[in-house]
């Protein structure tokens, strides 16, 4: 079981102790549920109810490290994209109840702290709370969705890339949201360099204007 836990945690991109404990607890609960149902169906049902209550009341620890993520509500994302089309955006569409979204949170936060510029920003919107946003951006927010989480890249106010994406058979390809995978899929280093170059080109002009 330890091998399975380590393999699953590494594939998800989360390699901290909380991720390993979370996966271990999930498998432990499944095994305990099978054992309780084998011993007595009534006890099995009671155990499942208790697990559901525990899941609803006690969630996973919330990431509290450094981040530069802007959280959008309702139609705020649409308004921001329309307001400033010179700014590039990486947006995560997530839900609070999805373990995959919880695993992505610290990775996305770290990337935001490292790559945010005046013209390159990171944002998130909870499509569980704002289903109209899920519908507008074509995100399936159901329990069995393969699109949670989704990261989209917006340029000039329009989406130009997203993960996970559709393959040739119009099916969503599994995407492992590791830090390296995200950087590679969205060409993050080159995008950052280009945005920095634009800012550097503007700086002499601004300094010249101030001196006058």
From TrEMBL:
- Which keywords belong to this entry? Membrane, Transmembrane, Transmembrane helix
Instruction: List, for all copies, the residue spans of the domain called Thioredoxin.
Output: 56-187
Classification via Pfam families: Thioredoxin
Where exactly are the transmembrane stretches of this chain? 45-63
Q: What PROSITE patterns does UniProt report for this protein, alphabetically? A: THIOREDOXIN_2
PANTHER family on file: THIOREDOXIN (PTHR10438), THIOREDOXIN-1-RELATED (PTHR10438:SF468)
Q: What is this protein called?
A: Thioredoxin domain-containing protein
């Amino acid at each position: 079981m330890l091998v399975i836990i380590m393999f699953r945690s590494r594939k998800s991109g989360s390699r901290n102790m909380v991720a390993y404990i979370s996966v271990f607890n999930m498998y432990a609960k499944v095994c305990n549920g099978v054992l309780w149902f084998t011993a007595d169906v009534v006890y099995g049902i009671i155990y499942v109810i208790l697990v559901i209550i525990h899941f609803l009341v006690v969630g996973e620890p919330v990431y509290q490290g450094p981040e530069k993520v802007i959280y959008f509500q309702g139609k705020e994302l649409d308004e921001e994209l329309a307001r400033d089309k010179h700014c590039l955006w990486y947006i995560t569409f997530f839900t609070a109840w999805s373990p995959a979204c919880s695993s992505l949170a610290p990775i996305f936060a770290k990337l935001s702290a490292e790559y945010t510029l005046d013209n390159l920003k990171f944002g998130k919107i909870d499509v569980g709370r704002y289903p109209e946003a899920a519908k507008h951006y074509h995100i399936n927010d159901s329990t069995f969705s393969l699109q949670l989480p989704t990261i989209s890249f917006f340029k000039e106010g329009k989406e130009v890339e997203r993960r996970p994406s559709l393959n040739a058979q119009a099916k969503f390809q599994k995407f492992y949201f590791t830090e390296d995978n995200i950087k590679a899929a969205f060409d993050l280093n080159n995008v950052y360099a280009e945005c920095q170059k634009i800012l550097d080109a503007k700086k002499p002009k601004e300094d010249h204007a101030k001196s006058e």
